[in-house]
Design a protein that fits this description.
With 262 residues, the protein is an alpha+beta fold. It has helices at 3-19, 51-54, 60-63, 171-177, 190-193, 229-238; strands at 71-72, 79-85, 89-96, 101-105, 111-114, 117-127, 133-134, 137-138, 141-148, 154-163, 184-189, 200-206, 214-227, 255-261. The protein has an 8-stranded mixed barrel. Strand 9 (141-148) and strand 10 form a beta hairpin. The structure holds zinc ion (ZN).
Length: 262
């Protein structure tokens, strides 16, 4: 197997890991119903406080000590690392995962280098309102750009969103989210989605959806981007309050970082 195909295969495996808990009503029925992931939600008996009870494979959601999201400090710690981001367009398709509107990359576009390791963009999805808070305050929305390295290690780039001017770069994603058709092809210019300042918070956390798997590197940009009220409303119309409450920081440390577009 070539290095390239190994990378793609590993990346797809990682993407499958991130999606395993996200199979909701929009997912096609499996041939083996017993193998379907248990149903979880953001409300009531199957909501965030009960995720570990929904399925034994979700136990990390309650037992984990490095969970996400978290409340971030008002002041960004001084930068101690630097990320390099490529500025390539990424092709993929937009669909409803059952828990969020999602753009799934073909795995051939945007890449980033963190700690000497190269990651490629697997998918992007939206939470309304934000999952991470800053000094206790949520933002209107949050985008998660899920990246994986060749070993399947995940790095999620979090982008907070405030209401303001429309985002032209996100228009194709949001436009596709308004359509009934599944799997709409979209090209995303990730570098144009990001804010001018790439200063960020970094910490080790988890998936914010079941199975809440840990050892996920989080990079949350401290400068929000803006989307119009209409754009946020479109995402909210698809999935509202799909945000897990913040989790205890525990023994972890939030450090600062910078990033630059290559
Ligand atoms: Zn997410």
């Amino acid at each position: 197997m070539s290095a390239r195909s190994w990378l793609v295969t590993s990346a797809l495996t990682a993407a499958a890991v991130t999606l395993v808990g996200c199979a909701g009503p929009a997912t096609e029925p499996s041939a083996t119903p017993a193998a379907e992931p248990a149903h979880w939600s953001y409300d009531g008996d199957t909501g965030p406080a009960s995720w570990a009870d929904v399925d034994s494979s979700f136990e990390t959601c309650a037992a984990g000590t490095d969970q996400s999201p978290i409340d971030l400090p008002a002041t960004v710690p001084a930068p101690s690392t630097s990320i390099e981001l490529s500025a390539e367009d990424t092709d993929g398709d937009v669909f409803d995962s059952g828990h969020a509107m999602e753009f799934e990359s073909d795995g051939e576009g945007e890449t980033l280098t963190f700690g000497g390791d190269e990651y490629s963009l697997q998918q992007m999805h939206a939470h309304v309102p934000s999952e991470h808070t800053v000094n206790g305050q949520p933002a209107a929305a949050e985008l998660h750009l899920v990246n994986a390295d060749a070993d399947g290690k995940l790095l999620v780039l979090g982008v907070l969103v405030t209401e303001g001017a429309a985002s032209d770069a996100l228009a194709p994603f949001i436009e596709a989210a308004t359509h009934e058709a599944d799997d709409e092809d979209v090209t995303l210019d990730v570098s144009a989605v990001l804010p001018a300042s790439l200063e960020n918070y970094e910490y080790s956390g988890s998936l914010t959806t079941p199975p809440c798997t840990e050892d996920v590197q989080w990079v949350v940009l401290s400068t929000p981007i803006s989307m119009s009220a209409e754009q946020i409303g479109t995402l909210e119309g698809a999935h509202s309050h799909n945000a897990r409450p913040t989790q205890p920081l525990g023994d972890r440390t939030v450090v600062g970082g910078t990033a630059e577009l290559g």
